[in-house]
Amino acid sequence: MGAFLLAYVSTCGVIGRAVDSYPESRLADPSVARLKVKQFSRTKDAYDLVFVGSSRFYRQLSPAIFDRTVQSNGGPRLRSFNLGLAGMRHHEIVRTVRWVLEENPARLKWIVIEPLEIHEEFESENMSTHRGVNWHTPRVTWEVWRNILRQGRGPGENLTALTAHLHSAALRAGNFGMAQSWALSWRGLDRQPNPRMDGFFPLDMQSDLVDEEWEKEIQRSLRKREELENFRRSFFETPDEGDPDSIWLEAFALLADEVRSRGVEPVFLVVPPTWEKWAGVVEAGRTGKLSPMFTYHDLRQYPDFYRFENLFNLGHLNSKGSRILTARFAREFGEYLSGAKDG
After folding, report:
1. Is the bond preceding residue 273 a cis peptide, omega within 30 degrees?
2. Domain span at 211
3. What is the DSSP track for 134-182?
4. Predicted model pTM
5. Which of 28, 46, 146, 170 has the maximal Cβ count within 10 Å?
């Protein structure tokens, strides 16, 4: 029995290394995630900066505008890539940042990270998807387990969550379902990314939505003015101050140290629109516990990001709002680099 287990683990390791030689093969074909990973792994040595975060990064940060604006405001000439994905949460962000570092891009100097809160809740339908399985490396799975056990839940709830994550980790370790996906990559038969792809795609440019879905979104937008007023009121009702969650702060501080140890600077970015003030996150940035940190979510400071004409929905900016956000961050990032250089 022992010999069999040893042989099985060894075989899984060999197959895993073969699969990882085509990193996109761990993701569904076709999918945005697969195309982004494929494009980045092919052209990684061309990038100085990478964005990693949720759909608020994916849909709202334009590398083309960012690169151009940084340089036009006296900053360095650079090239960036957007690795943000819809639905990306804390642990997938952590895994993606580590994967970027493992790829060892020759020119990489900065990784811009969305410091999302840690939510250990899981959606069962996502746990066995290619993306859900992909981020369950042994290290990340252990970090998930540790966070679950530190949150003081009941034994039954803990067992359900721990078992679900263990299942995803086992699927990844065993390379289940990878044969066809890997073969497609190896033979070059999977969908190929556009060579000009930079990872940014605003929601109002989503031409592949079917008409019915698009009409529903338009109807939701027509009701958005009333919803937006409720949104604004709720923002002012949330506390202005708060200490950062200790588990969250520890996780991102360790990730920041890991990034710096590879000669890359982590940059933390909070983007609009959001229903809360992120008081603990802002405090972590203000006190230097996580820095540098740029925040643009506060309705009082940045009302433009909460105007009807700049929103696609209450969770995302439209193309116009995205241009404003990207340009603003680019200008302030350039100023930050100039100050760091002068200092």
Report:
1. yes
2. 23-125+197-342
3. HT--HHHHHHHHHHHHHTT--HHHHHHHHHHHHHHHHHHHTTTTHHHHH
4. 0.91
5. 28
